[in-house]
Amino acid sequence: MAPLQLGVLLAAAGSLTALVLEFRGAKAFGTRRLFAPPAGDAVAGARYAFTKGMAPQAKESVRMNPLSYLAGVLYHGGVFAAFALLGLRLGNFHRPKALAALALVGALGGFALFGKRLLKAHLRGLSSPDDFVSNILATAFATLAGAVTLRQGLESAWLMVAIALLVYMPIGKIRHCVFFFSTRYHSGAFFGRRGVFPPATNRPERG
Amino acid sequence: MPEFDELEARLAALTEADFACGLEVFRGKLTAADASYLNTCVHCGLCAESCHYFRMDPELENIPAAKLKKIAMVFKREYTTVGRFAPGLVGAKAMDTDMARAWVDAVFGRCSLCGRCSMNCTVGIALPRLFRAARAALGAMGLVPSDLQATVDTALQHGNNMAISKTDWVETVQWIEEELQLETGDPEARLPLDRQGAKILFTVNPREPKFFPLSLQASAKVFWAAKEDWTLTADNGWDLTNYGLFNCNDQEAGALTQNLVDAMVRLGCETLVIGECGHGYASARWEGPEWLQQEYPFKVKSILELMDEYLREGRIKVDPAKNPKPVTLHDPCNLVRHGGICEAQRRVLQASAAHFIEMTPNREHNFCCGGGGGQLAMGRYKGRRLQSGGMKAQQIRDTAAEVVVTPCHNCVDQLMELNKEYKLKVQIKTVAEVVADALVS
Amino acid sequence: MSILEFNGKQLELNEEGFLVNPSIWTEELALVLARQEESLDQLSEDHWAVIRFIRAHFLENQAAPMVRSICKSTGIPLKRIYELFASGPAKGACKLAGLPKPDGCV
User: Residue A207 above 50 pLDDT?
Assistant: First the structure.
């Protein structure tokens, strides 16, 4: 195996280990036994949080920022596609051009969000250097994944960026790739237990 | 500004030991869920418009994520490896005087703990839990705004948050009983006090006996019409409020909850019924058992659920024509978004008012009136409170309703101020007041 | 914090419009507060009855009276109190009587 490919595998293993350790560290804060009797179902609440609770009709923030939402969805799709391409490359499998296109479109979303973060004063004020570094690495990774698949060359650059991204994942905010799931579970379960999620069906004039 | 100076004086006097103490309390509040939340925010900023503070004053400091970031900074510095070794990269910072000041401003000065941001967070963070952890830490550092703390202290000392004496309370109950007898023409209409073994112990907000007893009279009239087996208590345990939910001192909050538990045990009632109060319901129903670390030997219900049952079971009858003016409903955050009582008040109003109009948005997506989270007790932030309430004022205006109904005395007070400030020219009522007016035999 | 100009003196009001120093209250000042805080150009005998009772109760007990005592002592029915003072007994009447802001949900 070529050294860069080996590097990717090592970085992935290291990244995964670090993310698991971080996740376990957060878990070590512990859960409390709850004494108030539930009014609803925590699991149903969590299920809602991962499904309809994420949909635009449930979220004003999405409805008010449709372009950011679109860019975000594309960006995430692009990065997932890029990881799929990376896996296929390491296994020497065929890499579909559709995935490459998806990665490139996603990279466009990443560029757009980078620009938004840079240009909008509020968003800039909200940001740490990590916010920019994380975007640059993930966007570059998706861009190169698409480019390398559609045209030969640049492969070593792609793999080097992949290594950098993997190493950086547990350091910066990309750790949300793991924490997203526990966060949505916990808040969904909280509102589920209290009988707020899922909202009653057939109610008039939903806000 | 003396209050501001007073806060600055307290900040200036902070020692390393105070910071350590605050952090210990902060740490003690955090669960796995909170640690997950603090690791998840990606600073996307889409939560901005979900906050009524930001809507009315679009400053960076009013973005929920910006408030959360101040807490996450300290969390990262204290509890994450990267935060310790590369604080600049991920925005980690130690707790110090400036950070404590920033926390006070964020979690007391710009947040009503309404949780509307939780509904709109891209990654699903339930933010108020963390704001409450920060308030608790600030409390341990002696940084709770003095008027908010005074409300808690008064309740701890007097058994109710307005220092009403037992004589004054009992005389008011007897007076309202006479008024109820006059209103109903029934000399047997009662506001029972300390009736041993009654099915229901009803609790009220001290502002009712002190200044606004018509809402108590309205609740009593509904119980009278439903022939309910109920009682009030003359001793501690009649006050449903708990500002421990807002200063976030779990011990003090638990001590106030204990008053309710003691009254229930003393009288041997089956169900503790919480009058129309958002934070009182959330405190008694949801947080109380956690503060006391025990299950209650009784049930807790909101009077809204009770009125809904009365109507469903035909125990009371109402004629909506008796409330002809267009009515809208304000959803208190602690009762609806954090309390889970979403539909009962709607069914009750649909039945009792001729013309009921929903606000948009509503239910768990409703905007806070601006008076939640103890804001009404913190004079220092009055300007921001009234400004942020502009969102609610606009919502009310858009309905063109003439009556705004809300099942929360705290919201009632803020809405009364908004009514004046924004010249809304509406009437503000509780749900029981609307039902009481619609009762027919 | 705001400043109320009154008889050439500058009086401090807290953020809620309550007098910072309740002891400086006079009936003339009540009129000024009525105009500023309650948009009342003049005060009727009923207004004065309520304000004077609240003031006297405060001086004796260092606290606002129960609305029951206000009604019983002045003979004014409860519903009339809310008509007299649009902001209610606490933020209306007590403020005009120069009391500090009461604790609680008011």
Answer: no
